[in-house]
Amino acid sequence: MAETAHYDLVIIGSGSGNSLLTPYWDDKNVASIDGGIFGGTCLNNGCIPTKMFLYPADHAAMTDRLSALGVDMEVTGTDYAAIRDRVFGIIDPISEGGAEYRANGEHTTLYPEYAHFTGPKELTTDSGAVITGDQIVIAAGSRPVLPAEISGLDHPAVHTNVDMMRLSDLPRRTVVLGGGFIASEAAAMFHGLGSEVTQINRSATLLRAFDHDVSQTFTEVAGKAWTVQLAQQVTAVEDGGDDGAAATVVTEGSDGTEYRYPADAVIVAMGRVPNSDTLNLAATDVATHDDDRIVVNDFQQVLDKHGKVIEGIWSLGDINSEYQLKHVSNLEARTVMNNLENPDSMVRSDHRFVPAAVFTQPQVATVGLTEAEAIDQYGADAVAVKKQYYRDTAYGWAMGAEEEFAKVIVSKAGNRILGMHIVGEQAATLIQPILTAMQFDIPADKLARGQYWIHPALTEVVENALLGTVDVPY
Ligand SMILES: Cc1cc2nc3c(=O)[nH]c(=O)nc-3n(C[C@H](O)[C@H](O)[C@H](O)COP(=O)(O)OP(=O)(O)OC[C@H]3O[C@@H](n4cnc5c(N)ncnc54)[C@H](O)[C@@H]3O)c2cc1C
Ligand SMILES: NC(=O)c1ccc[n+]([C@@H]2O[C@H](COP(=O)([O-])OP(=O)(O)OC[C@H]3O[C@@H](n4cnc5c(N)ncnc54)[C@H](O)[C@@H]3O)[C@@H](O)[C@H]2O)c1
Question: 359 in ligand 2 pocket by Cβ < 6 Å?
Fold first, then answer.
């Protein structure tokens, strides 16, 4: 029988879970378990490599916008292999270095394998190592959904975020399935790099969960850059196809019409599910929500089926979170970090104002209530809404902006920002002062007029949006 190794702290998952180890743990024994690539999703096949691909892809896709400004620029090609190798030449050594650091740490032990619970506070790895811990942190993340109703998703031309950035060559035709974050970023990325992209979505707009105007505008702009097929349900991926295609994506329209799309690569981006179902939680008292997320309280302590804290078990990141965002996982990791070290002065995770951005061209950024949600919650007369087009500001003129805008929603009585939604260049950066105001309870009029806004920077879009919702004398 395998001997049991006992640790002060056991961490399942090396994404945000890997950031828990402060000097506090230097004289204690810690086990880090990860069966996937060390460093988790964001580093290896999520946020970071996608943005490293999107940056050159965005620039390569700029020719149309520049021609309207009198610049006749031609992109004669992108070197996919060079871009891929640069990205992973930076990322892979970070992942390898992190794994080595944990494997060789004086007080850390790395188990580079998957593990599941075999007792309330006992784990067994795939090779049979048995591990117990005084404290266990479940940070095992999420994985892509491969809908069972679509046949052929095991075809070699089908990829998810896990491998879509490590292809041997740029596909001539890329068919992207889904209309959310990953699908839209993947479509922008392959389009910018020079692939012929078709994005297929079940609903009538891309980024459907965003403010309606944002979703509508993004869908229109994306549809001008690459092919967007809406209101179609994917039924199958078949082998081979027209013009030497590796595969054919088969869809059905709302009237039952069948459509067929030849593809050299198919990217599936139809949501992500928490990995809790792989952990044999039945051996524990850990409770899960209907969608399999682990149930935690604000301190990130895991709860049992009666809502009681299970002492010594914590969870953070995608496996418990409805947000599935890295900045949320990081905040939750800081909560766990503090609470493990300071049980007498625990802190709560603050999820009141969670922002998100989609790093497409145009970028999208959001925080707080959408216009529809605000009206629903407060009533139409109680909220002031301003949709400020980039094209009505000086920098917008410089850019030749057309559809891009920032929409702010302010409560009239409270003079507080309820939400902001931006579609346009630098949206993820422009939204930051709004996050600051919401987090630190700065009134909308004070944010608008109580500071300088650099002229004629793009931030004047945000300033003017705010000025459209508040009463300021001068
Ligand atoms: C393509 C893509 C782009 C993204 N872009 C952004 C972005 O721009 N901004 C943003 O905020 N968020 C982005 N995200 C989301 C972000 O990556 C995740 O929210 C974040 O990485 C979650 O971190 P985590 O620590 O919860 O999980 P992960 O980083 O996924 O770590 C979980 C780890 O647990 C391991 N594991 C799982 N099961 C077991 C087991 N049984 N035993 C041992 N180990 C196990 C896995 O191998 C994995 O390494 C993106 C995601 C994707 C897929
Ligand atoms: N920039 C970022 O912050 C960023 C980037 C990528 C991913 N992420 C995170 O990763 C999470 C997962 O991303 P995602 O794009 O996979 O999920 P998502 O929830 O954003 O989008 C899922 C898409 O798949 C579609 N879909 C789901 N099931 C389907 C089915 N059976 N048939 C047809 N269509 C179906 C949905 O309609 C939707 O368009 C996001 O929620 C986000 O939090 C963030």
Answer: yes
